[in-house]
Amino acid sequence: MRTLILHEDEPKMREWARILQGALQNHNLQVNLVDPSVGAGAPISTAQYELVIVLSSFRGLWRPIIPIAIDTLLKRCTRLEGKKGIAVVPQKLNSGKALRFLMHLMEVQGMMVGDFAAVRSPKEFSELAERFARLGSR
Questions:
Q1: Per-residue pLDDT, 71
Q2: Residue 83 CA to chain centroid, in angstroms?
Q3: 62 burial via Cβ count (<10 Å: 0-12, 13-18, 19+)
Q4: How far apart are CA 123 and CA 53, in angstroms?
Q5: What is the pLDDT of residues 79-103, one digit of tens each?
Q6: Phi, psi of 24 (to 5 degrees)
Q7: Which residue in 35, 96, 97, 127 has its CB near the most CB atoms, within 10 A?
Q8: How far is Cα 128 from Cα 126, in angstroms, rounded to an integer?
Q9: What distance in Å separates the CA atoms of residue 134 and residue 119, rounded to the nearest whole number?
Q10: What's residue 37's pLDDT?
Q11: How far apart are CA 123 and CA 135, in angstroms?
Q12: Is the pLDDT of residue 68 over 90?
């Protein structure tokens, strides 16, 4: 199954995306990574992917703010309607609110969010990859 990971262009998120990519490839998934710097504003076709994972950080204590780069990256993606989606954010104070807002951004683009996770460290990706692979095979 083909999987797309959309992630923020930040060193920590790039590292986490690569670790998640390796964990998913161990479960026989074909994984591509895309960050906001790819294509310089050109549309990103998601037609060939069955599963789309959005990996984003957030800032703010009382009202979490997802970076505008993730919102514009999602808007650049075409054919997201009906795709299975997964939202992933780091585990911090108010990560639940950040997850809800990220899922809202994904659903506005027509994705069906099937799973979500707040991750403390990249070591959790091996367990999550199994869960994500099962979601994609349904």
A1: 94
A2: 13
A3: exposed
A4: 17
A5: 999 999 999 999 999 999 999 999 9
A6: -70, -35
A7: 35
A8: 6
A9: 18
A10: 84
A11: 20
A12: yes
Position 116 pLDDT exceeds 90: yes
Contact by Cβ (8 Å): 113, 82: no
pLDDT digits (tens, 9 = 90+) for 8-64: 999 999 999 999 999 999 999 999 999 888 777 789 999 999 999 999 999 998 889
Alpha helices, H only, the chain: 11-25, 68-76, 95-108, 125-137
Query: What are the b/e assignments for 65-94, b being 16+ CB within 10 Å?
Result: ebbebbbebbebbeebeebbbbbbbbeeee
Q: Is 32 left (phi over 0), alpha (psi -120 to 50) or beta?
A: beta
Query: Which tokens hold the place of 132?
Result: 């994500």
Q: With 80 as the cut, is the pLDDT of residue 130 above it?
A: yes
Structure tokens at 128: 């999550």
Q: How far is CA 138 from CA 50, 114, 135, in A?
A: 10, 10, 6
- Tell me how long the chain is: 138
The predicted structure's pLDDT at residue 6: 96
Report which residue type is found at 23: A
